[in-house]
């Protein structure tokens, strides 16, 4: 039996989001369609006004609003995050438009079990400050003919960990940052749940700092 045939297990997901939450919704939709073997246990957010909060309420996930500023020390913030993840039995984390740094203690505890989605083809157009419209403005300014979406594991450096899945999206003449973002977002909603399913099926390994996917993506 190769990895692709192995029985999948349900991921107990923690979603981290700061904004509208369309990727969070796409993950829930894929679970409902039985394309993703997972359940969402918890939403962690720094923003109680985020659209993602309403989505968490409607799917019955627990909600943790955690802001570094509410804690005296950075380590207390990290410990509170680890504690809420533990209490909700989260075994895998999906960042979905989470605009804050993940504490290093959490990255270490969930090594190779945290994914992020980025609206460009990493390692181009990533790093600090490269989020939202900034990414698409930079892509258009460079005259790129393709952009796309990347799902990658999270490590201690912004937009840097092993790449799990990527898909190209054409840049069209006359595109604005908004039109390009909208076209890429449709692709994000497809590849993010599909990438998570690879982990549910145990099909991803890390070798020499690179993600190796059994039987392709
Ligand atoms: C997406 O474009 C994603 O690539 C980036 O943040 C955005 C989040 O959008 N990391 P949404 O909140 O999932 O709609």
List keywords for this structure.
217 residues, alpha/beta, Rossmann fold, seven-stranded mixed sheet, two-stranded antiparallel sheet, 6 helices, 9 strands, 34% helix, binds 5-O-phosphono-beta-D-ribofuranosylamine
Report what the structure shows.
By secondary structure, the chain is of the alpha/beta class. It has a single domain (8-204), classed as 3-Layer(aba) Sandwich (Rossmann fold), CATH 3.40.50. The chain is built from six helices and nine strands. The protein has helices at residues 22-32, 51-59, 74-87, 104-109, 133-141, 177-200, and strands at residues 11-16, 38-45, 62-65, 92-95, 114-118, 146-153, 163-170, 204-207, 210-213. It has a seven-stranded mixed β-sheet with strand order 3-2-1-4-5-6-7, sandwiched between helices. The chain has a two-stranded antiparallel sheet with strand order 8-9. Helix 4 links the parallel strand 4 (92-95) and strand 5. Helix 1 (22-32) packs across helix 6 and helix 5 (133-141) packs across helix 6 (177-200). The longest helix is centred in the C-terminal third of the chain and has 24 residues, at 177-200. The protein is globular and about 50 Å long. The mean pLDDT is 95.
Provide a concise account of the structure shown.
With 217 residues, the protein is an alpha/beta fold.
């Amino acid at each position: 039996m190769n990895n692709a045939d192995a029985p999948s297990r349900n991921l107990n997901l923690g979603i981290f989001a700061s904004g509208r939450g369309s990727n969070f919704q796409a993950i829930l939709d894929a679970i409902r369609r039985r394309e993703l073997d997972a359940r969402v246990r918890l939403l962690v957010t720094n923003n109680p006004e985020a659209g993602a909060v309403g989505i968490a309420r409607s799917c019955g996930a627990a909600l943790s609003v955690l802001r570094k500023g509410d804690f005296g020390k950075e380590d207390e913030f990290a410990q509170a995050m680890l504690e809420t993840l533990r209490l909700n039995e989260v075994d895998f984390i999906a960042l979905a438009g989470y605009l804050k740094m993940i504490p290093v203690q959490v990255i270490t505890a969930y090594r190779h079990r945290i994914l992020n989605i980025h609206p460009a083809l990493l390692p181009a157009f990533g790093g600090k400050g490269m989020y939202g419209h900034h990414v698409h403005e930079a892509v258009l300014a460079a005259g790129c003919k393709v952009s796309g979406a990347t799902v990658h594991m999270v490590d201690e450096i912004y937009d840097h960990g092993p790449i799990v899945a990527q898909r190209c999206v054409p840049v069209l003449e006359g595109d604005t940052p908004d039109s390009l973002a909208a076209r890429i977002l449709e692709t994000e909603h497809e590849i993010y749940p599909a990438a998570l399913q690879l982990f549910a099926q145990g099909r991803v390994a890390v070798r020499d700092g690179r993600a190796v996917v059994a039987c392709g993506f």
